[in-house]
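ZP: hey, is the adenosine-5'-triphosphate complex queued? I don't see it on the tracker
AM: it wasn't, my bad. submitting now with these inputs:
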Amino acid sequence: MSTLSNSAVPAVDVPAVDIRSVGRIFPGRKGASVTALDNVSLTVAPGEFVSLIGPSGCGKSTLLRLIADLDVPTSGNIRVFGKPARQARIDQDYGIAFQQAGLLPWRTVTGNIELPLELHGVDRPGRRARAAELIELVGLTEFAGSYPDQLSGGMQQRVAIARSLAERPSLLLMDEPFGALDEMTRERMQNELVRICAETAAAVVFVTHSIPEAVFLSNRVVVMSPRPGRIRRVVPVGLGAMRDRGEDLREDAGFFRSLSTVRDLLHGDDGPAIGAPRGVETR
Ligand SMILES: Nc1ncnc2c1ncn2[C@@H]1O[C@H](COP(=O)(O)OP(=O)(O)OP(=O)(O)O)[C@@H](O)[C@H]1O
Ligand SMILES: [Mg+2]
């Protein structure tokens, strides 16, 4: 099984992600530019679960794309497990599940999940076994041989999540991975993600619009503000270790306290609170 083991064991004290004074300005038409991120600094420890939340357009996806080296900062720098973001991408130190499922249409569910394992030279029986395990985890056993265009949006998203977990990465970068799921499936996937994180000690940077989802999953919730995208506040959640997080936590007093803190910050400088900022779910 050594080929399936974690190839990116972080050195002690090296952050999983280290973002220093990062800015990203997109040049616009006729000289009008958009400052998507301004002076953002954040450190994510190995095994830590950090959520990014904030109104639509505040730069959450941009920040995740910078960590994944799918884009480069205009200023500042980012290190992943002590390496430049580019090197971490080349070494495939993390799993990614983004807003768009990004599946290969000519590959089946199994084929898509096996892809990262194939790229890393895992043998066929090893790939099959791991894919089957993950397909069961995301509840798609009956669809293992189906192609992406035969699946609903939420099912495609579950395949993408399974694929991101295939190599048991030390870091997961997830951009609204549960956005397309129905509420029941969403809560089940949240519970599974908590279990997976407890088992694998993976660090996670997780973008969501849902305050309860951010609070339930995270060690810290990063509340962002838009134009220019900045970190408004980092809220430590303090609901205990991942392995102790169960369904009953959703009824816990500490859970509701953290919900209010995050909600208040999101209303923040947008004047008197009359409902949540656009694009943020308060349920
Ligand atoms: N490639 C790009 N070119 C120009 N502008 C961009 C580009 N990508 C993002 N932006 C701009 O940067 C800002 C932040 O976008 P981003 O996608 O990071 O927001 P977000 O917080 O993920 O929003 P949402 O919650 O809607 O997904 C937006 O104003 C957006 O228009
Ligand atoms: Mg986004």
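AM: back. The radius of gyration is 19 Å.
ZP: great, adding it to the tracker
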